[in-house]
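Final report, Chapter 2: Outcomes

The project's central promise was a pipeline that accepts a single protein chain and returns its three-dimensional structure in a standardized token representation, suitable for archiving and comparison. That pipeline is now operational. To close this chapter, we reproduce one record exactly as it appears in the project archive, with the input sequence first and the structure output second.
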Amino acid sequence: MLLNICKNIRISLFKYPNNTGCRELSDMKKILSQEYITKIGIEKEKEECLLIEKNLFEQSLLQHKPITAAERLKSDIRTLNQKSIRERAPPPKALSEMERKRRLEKGSKSEIINDKELGFEFTKLSLTDSRLTTMMTTVRSKRRRDKNRQIVIEGRRLILEALECGLRLKTILFSQREQLATIKEEVAVLQKAKQAEIYKVPHHDLKIWSTLTTPPGVLAIFERPCSQHIRKRLSKLPPALPITVVCDNIRDPNNLGSIIRTCAALPCLQIVITIGCCDPWESKSLRGGCGGHFRIQIHDDVNWEEVPLVIPAEVADNCWVFIAENNISKSKGLTNVLDYTNIEQTGSHSVVIIGGESHGVSTEAYQFMQTVGNRGKCLHIPVAEGVDSLNVASALTLILYELRKHVLRMQNCEI
């Protein structure tokens, strides 16, 4: 607005109120000198502009408070920031477990069937029921499975093994009622105690979530056994052999399951699974273990720095370390290489380290063996020419049963 007023005033300086009208600009330049226009005229323009501005504010309710451009920009920025800030909505309240289940059941069509022959009732889920997807998505994710301490077991035989070992059954899914005939008594007792939920689902849906080529048609979700549960159960059995097995770079879940099965059959005191191995609690490993996971102490996700802490403190000073090494190139520079049948001493406790077939034993394993000095040995299993090596589970079985003979011989001599 001030710019327009200045323009009008600049034009009005060259107008004369006479009858002949306005003179041309060229005539005015002749009358007024350039010095007058530049010095006196411009100052007069400013005074008139300020006077007009002051008069305008005096005739209105506004106050005459001139501000600079920087102050104006700052005020605009504050206004914009205040407009951009929105009130955040309060976070949604976490649903309880009962409320979550109620909402799932409300949005899904299901039918509760009371089977008198089996002795318990089950819920028949429809094809579009979302409860199956929700349950299986949770237990198939390692992060969620570890957080909830759950394991998935497939097949009637393995489910029965878990029930016999006292594991807590949370949910069981089946596609045909005949598949529950062999465990109906155990399932009925758990359902009466309100400890288990039973669902019948279409075989096609159960097949999608199965990890087996030929699904057995029955799947159960158990609570993972804790160390206290295993320790309490083992206290009622004869003492295990003073042997700790350390798994290093075991990537195949079937091999890891077979190793756990062998250690439980010996039985060894405990098994340590270092970081870098596969998950011992996934379905393939559990199936390969054939129930061995429930009969031995398992320490998983262990760093090599933590391995000495797992060894019993009372036998740590007289502990022997054996590495099962099939790679001859790694053991060429070592003087402590023995044939697995020539074990002469074992000490109060023995640690057997077994590596994977593809990656072998790590450098950290050799460093751990060097900490015990002369009590560390590399065990070699001879094989025929042209044969690369034995399966990792088979090699460990040979070494463990050779150690077992030596340990039992030493115990008999002490008696």
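Archive annotation: The chain has two domains: 108-224, 232-414.
This record, like all others produced under the grant, will remain available to the consortium after the project formally closes.
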